[in-house]
Automatic annotation (TrEMBL):
EC number: 2.3.1.118
Family the entry assigns: Belongs to the arylamine N-acetyltransferase family.
Keywords, comma-separated and alphabetical: Acyltransferase, Transferase
Pfam families: Acetyltransf_2 (PF00797)
Domain of life, per lineage: Bacteria
Enzyme class: transferase
GO molecular function: N-hydroxyarylamine O-acetyltransferase activity
Taxonomic source organism: Citrobacter enshiensis
Signal peptide: none
Record's protein name: N-hydroxyarylamine O-acetyltransferase
InterPro entries named in the record: Arylamine_N-AcTrfase (IPR001447), Papain-like_cys_pep_sf (IPR038765)
Length: 281
């Protein structure tokens, strides 16, 4: 086992034997979603987000922080590759908000080839991210621990959708073209620096739970969902409450010298956001 895998498994609290099979892929996918939180705090601090292996390991594994798709799927891809999986990153265009024109490629996801089949894995799409790999097969409704998904195909393009109540909602579209590190660097820079990027205007956080629930945070508004229903909602009254909740409910590391942050630093970020109960809805 490589030193990175040892640290990664320890971070996930995963002690089973890793093998190149679908059971390991499914188990690691869910453990990753349940442990390494989706969050965009570095965009708001602001801190530059680096995508090299060492930087991602230091932040997400050692410092126990989270991150967004370029970081999350970067770490997951490395772990799968070091286990022995055949895996590579793809880039998608996010269409969740039904944009008027086609957006740029700003979402990183993974293509895994296993025993003659192709699978899509993705631990980095926030509240609607996959929590299990799905087969790269058109029009097949596939269940995960946190919802039902399907892929539809239009020529060379694939579209990932999730079942939202009584209809299917598109999340992002992608093709299987080869991508390079420079493509992720460009998409990451756009996501972090484009003035209209939603990552620049809201604190966003999500942690999926092993029991099918999930925890979400938008600015000062915290929600615990179970079976698609909100069973707990809190409008946090102040930054001190927020700082505590990040640690207790999301398990976020705050003490690392480089990647941690103080309550005062968080307060400076959150000063742009209203604490009114409607702010996070």
């Amino acid at each position: 086992m490589t030193p990175f895998l040892h640290a990664y498994f320890s971070r996930l609290g995963w002690s089973a034997t890793a093998a190149v099979n679908i059971d390991t892929l499914r188990a690691l996918h869910l453990h990753h979603n349940s442990t390494i939180v989706f969050e965009n705090l570095d965009v708001l601090l602001p801190r530059e987000i680096q995508l090299d292996d060492q930087s991602l390991e230091e932040k997400l594994i050692v410092a126990r922080r989270g991150g967004y798709c370029f970081e999350q799927n970067g770490v997951f891809e490395r772990a799968l590759r070091e286990i022995g999986f055949t895996v590579r990153s793809l880039l998608g265009r996010v269409v969740l908000a039904n944009p008027a024109s086609m957006p740029p490629r700003t979402h990183r996801l993974l293509l895994v080839e296993l025993e003659g089949e192709q699978w899509i894995a993705d631990v980095g799409f926030g509240g609607q991210t996959l929590t299990a790999p799905i087969r790269l097969q058109a029009d097949l409704e596939q269940k995960t621990p946190h919802g039902e998904y399907r892929l539809i195909q239009e020529n060379e393009e694939w579209i990932l959708q999730f079942r939202h109540h009584d209809h299917w909602q598109s999340m992002y579209c992608f093709d299987l073209g080869i991508q390079h590190q420079s493509d992720y660097v460009m998409g990451n820079f756009w996501s972090a620096h484009w003035p209209q990027s939603h990552f620049r205007h809201h604190l966003l956080m999500c942690r999926h739970l092993p029991d099918g629930g999930k925890l979400t945070l938008t600015n000062f508004h915290f929600t615990h969902y179970q079976d698609g229903h909100a069973i707990e909602q809190i409008n946090l009254p102040d930054v001190a409450s927020l700082y505590a909740l990040l640690q207790t409910r999301f398990g976020l590391g705050v003490d690392d010298v480089k990647h941690g942050f103080t309550e005062a630093e968080l307060a400076a970020v959150m000063s742009a956001f209203d604490t009114h109960p409607e702010a996070g809805k």
